[in-house]
Amino acid sequence: MRAVFPEGFLWGVATASYQIEGADFEDGKGPSIWTDFSHRPGKVNSGDNGDVACDHYHRFSEDIELMKQLGVNSYRFSISWSRVLPEGRGKINRKGSDFYNKLIDRLLEVGIQPMVTLYHWDLPLELHRKIDGWESRDMRHYFGDYSSLVFSEFGDRVKHWITLNEPYCSSHVSYLWGEHAPGKRDLKTSLTVAHNLLLSHGEAVRRFREVVKDGTIGLANVSTFVEPATDSKEDRWAARIRDQFINGWFFETPITGEYPSELFKRFNDAGVQPLIEDGDMDLISTPFDFWGVNYYTRNVIRKEESSILGSEVVQGELAKTEMGWEVYPEGLEAFLYKTFKEYGKKPIYITENGMACKDKLTDGFVEDFERVDYMKRHFSSALSALKAGVDLRGFYVWSLLDNFEWSYGYSKRFGLVYVDYEKGLKRIPKRSYYYYRDFLERD
C-alpha cells in the first residue's frame, strides 16, 4: 500500500513536549500551567504528573534511534514555551534552546524532517498568573513574540510548522469542562479563550512570513466526524450545530473570517459570545499553508434542547479504544474530503491518529494486534481520500512512545513503543512498531 502514496509523502510519528520530555524543573525551565495543574490533588489520575514523563529530555538520542530504525521520514514534536522562555517573555533560556537545537540537528543527520508545533497546551505559568493567560487579548502579542524567537532560532532548519495544537481542547476542554489545565468551567470564558487562541494563530502566521522565507505553516485541529443519531430533522440540526462547535469554529473561521453563523447566533442570543474588535477577523483569517487533521473517532449526536449546544453525544455501537472512543476509520476518509472541499482546498497532513490499548508486557513483548488493525484501516482510509482527490501530504501516528496522557496520567498507552514506568523507563517496541516498520520498508 505504501507505494501507492505520492513520492515525498511524509510518514511520521508525533509527540508533545509536556507528555514526554520530563526535566520539568531542570536547566532553567519555568513551570507551565500543566506543572501546576498536575500537582493539584484530584486533577490527574493517580496523582501522576510530567515531572519526569518519558525523560525524553535526557534520552532524545535513544528515541531518535528508535525513529531511525522505524524508518519514518518525519517527526512532529512541540516546543515547550517555558523551556525557552521560562516566564513566557523576556530573556531566552539558552539551555532550553540548546536542547531543541541538538534534537533538530540529530533528526536531520539521520534523514528525519522535523515538523514543529509552537503550542501544545503547556502555557508558561507566569503568563497565566500575571495576565490571566489565554483569557487576555494581550496573549496574541506574547505568543507572537515567542513565535518570532522560535522561528529565528530554528527556522533555518525547520521548514514545517504548526501554530497551535487543537485549540478546541485548550479552550473548551480546559475552560468549559475543566478537565485540562487550568481547569476552569465557564462557557463565556471558554469562547473568549478560543477567540484569543485564533488571534494568536493569525499573529504567529504573520510573524512567520517575516522570518522564515522558505517554509510552510498550518493549524492542527481536533477533527471529529459528526453524525446524527437518526435521520430526523431535529437530530440532523443538532449534529450540524455540534459540528460547528467542534470543527467549524476552528476550521471555517480561519478561512472565511467569520464564525459559523448558526452557532454564533445561538451564543449571541445567550449573551456568551466572544468580544470581537475591529481587525480581529482579518487577523484570524491571515492566509496560511496547510491543515493538520488530528483524527481519532466520530460523535453520534441527538437533539437535547436543555444543552447550550442543543445536543448531546450518544454512545455508538462500534468497537471502542481504551479511551472509550469508537474505532471508525470511515470517518477519517469522510473528514479529509470535507476539510479539503469546504475549508480552502489546502494541503492536509494527518498530524495525529492512533489508539489507546490495554497493552500488556508479556515475556518482554507487547502483542498489540488491535493497534495494528487500527493502523491498517486508517492507512487505507487515507489512501481512499487521496484517490478521491484530497491533497494529502503526510500521516503521523500518535504516538512514538507511551506517555503522560493529560488528566489520565500514565493509565492510557498510545505508543508504538512501550515505556516501562516500573523499570527505568525502558523502551520496548511493540508489535505495531514492527508493523509500521515493515509497512514503510515495502516498495
From TrEMBL:
PANTHER family: GLYCOSYL HYDROLASE, LP05116P. One of its GO terms (biological process) is cellulose catabolic process. Substrate binds at residues 19, 120, 165, 296, 398, 405-406. Pathway: Glycan metabolism; cellulose degradation. Keywords: Carbohydrate metabolism, Cellulose degradation, Glycosidase, Hydrolase, Polysaccharide degradation. It catalyses: Hydrolysis of terminal, non-reducing beta-D-glucosyl residues with release of beta-D-glucose. The keyword Hydrolase applies. It is an enzyme of class 3 (hydrolase). Belongs to the glycosyl hydrolase 1 family. It holds the Pfam family Glyco_hydro_1. This is Beta-glucosidase. The active site is at residues 166, 352. GO terms for molecular function: beta-glucosidase activity. It comes from Mesotoga prima MesG1.Ag.4.2. One of its GO terms (cellular component) is cytosol.
